[in-house]
């Protein structure tokens, strides 16, 4: 029972490459001759199990590196070890031989990583064998593509993608990583065909290098997955007009965006607010925005934001968040000006359960800042009668005015269970007793939630 589990993805988890010898036990005479030509005279004993049939996950780059390690072991006393070019040719031949063996002996992949940083050359016979053994890719569910930069990488990747588009329609997760700015029509066309050929794509992710700005209809191809797509991840890419296709995705629940270009940050937030109108905004339950110093990592629309003090950036972000106001459950904002716009945003959060704010006011004396912040919180307590948040973090209950505002909110709302006070030990005993008649006061760390 354990053997099929242990041999699902041995190229990723095996500490020693000696497991490759078990695969080679099923080599034919012709293949063994190839090994002997390189001085590999190892005897491969017959195995009880047909190990290639258990393979479910494969990373082509790991396949290459495990083959390299295996060759270094079996040729430990060989004179060939000092010849790097010859060694590379041996590795390529062994990699192709091993891959051909896996395909022909019944392996059926669920996950495939097309990484080409090390595995550079695939012989034409590999793709011929794929055509003769369609089961190898027919059940593929997770596909990752990365490190496509050089011409030989592009050619290999394009050929593999053509095979994927031809032999499987069951991919649910497609991740395109380390995608370069260069334009190659064959590469983009192959990716578009993969996207369009699938019947149930649920997660699509793309990571650019050098801030990817053009997608040549690749993102637009997601229109074909509008009924199944549930999550989109965008990293170091410009949100151009192609991303408006997301408006048509009926079941999109999760959107994660990372923008790493300081100059483009404001523009990207503005584009986000246009792309995600109220129609789609109300459906999304998880929004993640990592934009320069803006950091948000929500789970079930849990928002954590750390800003860099740019008021224009703050305004743009708050405008973009309006679409998601009805769904926010957890809100944690650091280093933001306590503006009217922020107070309005908080006042609209009818599902809010956790609130944590760390605000600033440029050039304003501390006492004036405290006064303004407390006035804003008092206004929120007094007006947000439908608010349902259960936990509130506060730095200190300074005076009777603050305590009365808190008590008034508890009387009207009746949903607040805990108030975490950072300066818990500094609480006035009379204020403590008065407030605790309506809500439990606890130390800040006791109810602090990290998401």
From TrEMBL:
InterPro entries, alphabetized: LRR_dom_sf (IPR032675)
The name this protein goes by in its record: F-box domain-containing protein
Superkingdom: Eukaryota
